[in-house]
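Dear H.,

Thanks for agreeing to be a second pair of eyes. The structure we're designing against is below in token form, covering all 463 positions.
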């Protein structure tokens, strides 16, 4: 039952809320039009007679029109939505299932679905009120006007769906959702510690009672429990938003004097929400993984779509640039007194570095020197602003990527990217990594002007 409840809440969160609200509004409109038509106000009846003199002269004519509207809407909606879903499916085959996720979450799509279904139900409800002695003139007039609007919206729906399938739109929306979810996560990051302070207190491990992804961390629940336990209690979370935990995996380490550990353990279970489906609106790591998935599929030999892969790299570069400076996102705005005794190890910036590293690796597999160069430019552009830990991660990633650069031809674009990278490393006084990049470029440059395969471009043991 708990899983069914989560599935229902997720369905409403991702898609159902707006369509159901629009359908409910149409049903209320049908009731309202019926009440107005039954009103005894003289001007209302005069208006009814005026409309009836022009159209809807008899209940039979009104019934026929409403039946045509309802039947036509149901037919058009079924065919149109089936074709649009087929188009979405084709795009998803190129850019993975994240396309479906974005299609469902787009508010205009939800409004369109609700409008067409709601209007069909409205016409059916008004049709049900038609009797020989009652002709719903107002209801039929509204149905006709709303049907005209529906036909215009159909054109907009087709264009909007096609527009949503463009690679740049797909990437931009994931990028924007990731920014929003990161701001929400920072509300947790700003109020928590990065390292434990009470390692002198014996702790106990809190283990998961179910499996799923971490979709929410209710920090207030933990703060309340810590306040009730008192003393020097501390909760060290072993998971972050987006982490997957199986049954029995550690969720947290709780440290509390006396018998307070049991109360903290229960608070951890209440505070950490698990679900089988990840929530992009609260999980920035999921957005990073979606961009990585699109980039990997596009860059690899499976698709060889360099343009879409470049868009994913640029989006990741922007995220790294935004989050490499803590104050840019307000991370340093909280006073030390506001930080609570909860340890939360933020790994989102490291995830971006890992994502860029992965895309560079797949670029060597498909020999896309443009994508490899774009990753190097991303590192070069952000290196000077990175925090020390993130800078070390980038240096480590660069060292690993140099081992695969021999699969590429040293094009002018790659030379320019390497020049930008060496300049950034030189400014940051990263001596060892700078020397490694220069050695790798020199070795690859020796292959210029010679006939080589990817296996012989950089001979083994060359120095």
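And this is the sequence the design step returned. I haven't edited it by hand at all.
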């Amino acid at each position: 039952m708990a899983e069914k409840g989560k599935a229902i809440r997720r369905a409403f969160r991702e898609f159902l809320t707006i369509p159901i609200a629009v359908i409910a509004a149409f049903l209320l409109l049908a009731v309202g039009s019926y009440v107005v038509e039954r009103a005894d106000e003289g001007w209302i009846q005069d208006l009814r007679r005026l409309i009836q003199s022009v159209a809807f002269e008899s209940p039979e004519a009104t019934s026929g029109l409403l039946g045509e509207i309802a039947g036509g809407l149901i037919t058009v909606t079924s065919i149109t939505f089936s074709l649009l879903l087929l188009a979405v499916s084709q795009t998803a085959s190129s850019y993975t299932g994240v396309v479906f996720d974005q299609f469902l979450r787009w508010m205009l799509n939800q409004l369109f679905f609700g409008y067409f279904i709601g209007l069909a139900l409205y016409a059916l409800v008004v049709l049900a009120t038609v009797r020989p002695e009652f002709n719903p003139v107002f209801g039929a007039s509204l149905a006709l006007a709303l049907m005209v609007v529906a036909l215009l919206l159909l054109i907009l729906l087709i264009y909007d769906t096609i527009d949503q399938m463009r690679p740049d739109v797909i990437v931009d929306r994931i990028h924007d959702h990731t920014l929003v979810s990161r701001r929400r996560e920072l509300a947790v990051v700003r109020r928590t510690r990065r390292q434990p302070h009470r390692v002198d207190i014996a702790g106990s491990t809190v283990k998961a009672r179910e499996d799923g992804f971490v979709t929410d961390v209710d920090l207030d629940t933990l703060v309340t429990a810590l306040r009730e336990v008192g003393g020097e209690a501390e909760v060290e979370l072993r998971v972050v938003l987006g982490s997957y935990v199986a049954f029995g995996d550690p969720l947290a380490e709780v440290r509390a004097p006396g018998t307070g550990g049991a109360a903290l353990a229960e608070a951890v279970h209440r505070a950490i929400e698990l679900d089988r489906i990840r929530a992009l609106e609260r999980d920035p790591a999921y957005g990073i993984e979606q961009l990585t998935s699109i980039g990997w599929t596009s860059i690899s030999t499976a698709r060889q779509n360099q343009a879409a892969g470049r868009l994913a790299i640029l989006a990741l570069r922007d995220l790294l640039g935004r989050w490499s400076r803590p104050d840019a996102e307000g991370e340093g705005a909280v006073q030390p007194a506001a930080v609570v005794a909860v340890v939360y190890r933020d790994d989102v910036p490291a995830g971006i570095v890992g994502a860029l590293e992965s895309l560079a690796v797949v670029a060597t597999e498909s020999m896309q020197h443009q994508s490899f160069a774009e990753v190097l430019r991303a590192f070069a552009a952000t290196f000077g602003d990175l925090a020390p830990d993130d800078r070390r991660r980038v240096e480590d990633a660069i060292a690993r990527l140099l081992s695969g650069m021999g699969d590429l031809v040293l094009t002018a674009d790659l030379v320019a990217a390497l020049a930008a990278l060496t300049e950034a490393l030189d400014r940051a006084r990263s001596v060892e990594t700078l020397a490694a990049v220069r050695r790798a470029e020199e070795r690859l440059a020796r292959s210029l002007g010679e006939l080589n395969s990817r296996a012989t471009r950089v001979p083994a043991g060359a120095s």
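Two observations from my side: The beta strands are 203-207, 212-217, 234-237, 244-245, 250-255, 272-275, 342-343. The CA atoms of residues 6 and 275 lie 7 Å apart.

Warmly,
E.
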